[in-house]
Amino acid sequence: MTTAVLIVAAGRGTRAGGEIPKQWQLLRGKPVLAHTLAAFAGMRIVLAIHPDDRARAAALAPDIPLVEGGATRAQSVKNALEALEGTGVTKVLIHDGARPLVSRALIARLEAALDAHPGAAPALAVTDALWRGEAGLVSGTQSRDGLYRAQTPQAFRFAEILAAHRAHPGNAADDVEVARAAGLDVAIVEGDEDNLKLTFPGDFARAGRLLEGRTMDVRMGNGYDVHAFTAGDHVWLCGVKVPHDKALLGHSDADVGMHALTDAIYGAMAMGDIGRHFPPSDPQWKGAASHIFLAHAANMVREKGYVISNCDVTLVCERPKIGPHAHAMQQELARIMGVEPGRVSVKATTSERLGFTGREEGIASIATCVLVRA
Ligand SMILES: Nc1ccn([C@@H]2O[C@H](COP(=O)(O)OP(=O)(O)OP(=O)(O)O)[C@@H](O)[C@H]2O)c(=O)n1
Ligand SMILES: C[C@](O)(CO)[C@H](O)COP(=O)(O)O
User: Fold this and answer.
1) pTM for this one?
2) Relative to the CA of 44, which of 3, 84, 268, 280 has its CA 20 to 30 Å away?
């Protein structure tokens, strides 16, 4: 499953005022959009922008693909969805660039809900009494039962929401409206009071106060693993099958690199190690592919609201030679964890023929991982 984040930032922000559109105005020293992009760090992002903002966007986010927005929010979304077609994306989170305070915990709730529904969106139940008003006077009351305040990101299965946008006349306030018009069920996920949309000038001060109260939590973990050689004709290392004149012995597939990395991630969250989550005494994990362990650890990271900032795996062996496979290993680890390959490093060293790795009795691996929660 490949998830893309589609951030719409092509509006002109007329209600917010200011010399430049609201998403480019500074909030605690950085453009609003920089905060929004940081909230999705490590995920695949596409940004819809106004043609006048191309230079600003290229300077702020040189590595993020840009799509030209349209005259309405719905048109901007549709343009970006069309640009994503055929790229292998299966799920999409559609988010307002003007909501810089979206949290990782909210993103994780949406991703979980999307496993069971074609769409999922955050909302807050209306808690204040509702009135109608005319000429400055209360003219009636309105039941608040079943009423919600809609937020973004709104999450969908990609093919369904693209088809829904293609079929819609184009005047929808949000993507939930488009999805519902196409008959898709959209699950309501608990929203976040802090996930405000900058709409009016006064919203900037509130967003600034909320950002000030946020502290960044950075966590580091390390992992170490060893597996002995046995008879065989290949080894599994960092998710790649490497031909060799021996195999590695273990309860699972003995992928020593992936085990060290998985332990580093659990360690960063103070959640023990692989053995705690997948006990070797449990026969169901005998011969298990280690990607199950790594994917579990990466999911825990998301559920706890962190992102994998980077990780680094070192394999210690004389043979097989790792260099020719290092790129494939990097790509595979990144795919399993759902992060950009640039955040994953795989390298190797020999131990100068010293010790058990030097005598080619087995392979050792050490890994480090850094998690960040903004
Ligand atoms: N043609 C448009 C209009 C809106 N948006 C984006 O949709 C989000 C939510 O829209 P809104 O808050 O209404 O933004 P603006 O249209 O910019 O604001 P205004 O209506 O005050 O001009 C914003 O991130 C905005 O940049 C967009 O990408 N393309
Ligand atoms: C999509 C949205 O953010 C949901 O709350 C909102 O509808 C878009 O902004 P607008 O102020 O309604 O234009």
Assistant:
1) 0.76
2) 268
Tell me if 171 CB under 6 Å of ligand 2: no
The structural domains of the chain, ordered by start, are 3-213 (3.90.550.10), 218-373 (3.30.1330.50)
Q: Of 8, 14, 27, 165, which is best to mutate to test ligand 1, by the most ligand atoms within 8 angstroms of its C-beta?
A: 8
Ligand-binding site membership of 175 (annotated):
no
Collapsing DSSP to helix, strand or coil, 210 comes out as helix
Which residues have a Cβ under 8 Å from the Cβ of 160 and sit 6 or more positions away? 118, 119, 179, 182, 184
Q: Is 152 in the pocket of ligand 2 (CB under 6 A)?
A: yes
CB of 26 sitting under 6 A from ligand 2: no
d(CA 267, CA 368): 9
Residue 225 labelled as part of a binding site: yes
Residue pLDDT, tens place only, 91-111: 999 999 999 999 988 998 898
So what's the ipTM on this one?
Answer: 0.96
Query: What amino acid occupies position 165?
Result: H
